[in-house]
Write the structure tokens for this entry.
Amino acid sequence: MIDLHVHSTCSDGSCSPSELVHLALKGGVSALSLTDHDTTAGVASFMETCEEYGLEGVPGVEISVEVKPGTMHVLGYYIDCANASLQAGLAKIQHGREARNREILRKLNELDMDLVWEEVSGLSGEDIVGRPHFAKALVERGYVKSARQAFDRYLAKGKPAYAERFRLTPAAGIGLINGAGGVAVLAHPSTLSLGRNDLEQLVGDLVAQGLGGLEVHYSEHTSKQVQAYLKLARKFKIVATGGTDFHGDLNPGLRLGCGFGDLEVPDELLIELRSARDRVRAPDASGQ
């Protein structure tokens, strides 16, 4: 059993990178990828813990990119976290996140919720603050009963405290990942809410820009969707991947490794992902 999509306290998860490793081992997971949002801050400690305890770790990231009419996420696997261009791009995204956080706080204050920045940032285990930390602060203040209610009432897209932020174009996000020697994978395609033909057109366009995979196996994908996405991956000769999108306490019904209980990401997909990585790196290896 493998899980190639998990988040830590370095973005919007509730478990530290090392805690994720121990949780994976306890749950029988043989390979794990840390894919925090727009940061690789936790990858070094994650990989060290994986090596220490004999779990196969895959260095990863999840980059938010802008598409019409909304947002797309691109996962990056086997990235070189020391790559300067990758880190510069992620820093630009993070600065946009900081501006967004200030706007969310302003909107919440205008809604007569008396939050201050220090109490929100204090709920983050690491440097990056996201909407889950605002949600937790709202719960602790008694403005809502749960994090889910905080999103449903205030923080989700279209709600009164939502704020947009800077995102890269899909081509730029894919370029950052490929430039760092990684495989770019379109995350949870179901969330794009596209029809079959539109999704096929999009995937074809992204493959032309360097996309190397599609997240076929996902906690919220139906069996029918899995088959459709697998067929799409085969059509474009890109790798199929999968993962739970585990965040810990934010979604307590979802478990690392098996999602809501029935997710099965085939182990052999990791072999295909490694091959895709080698193809991305082949031009550098040949000196071209």
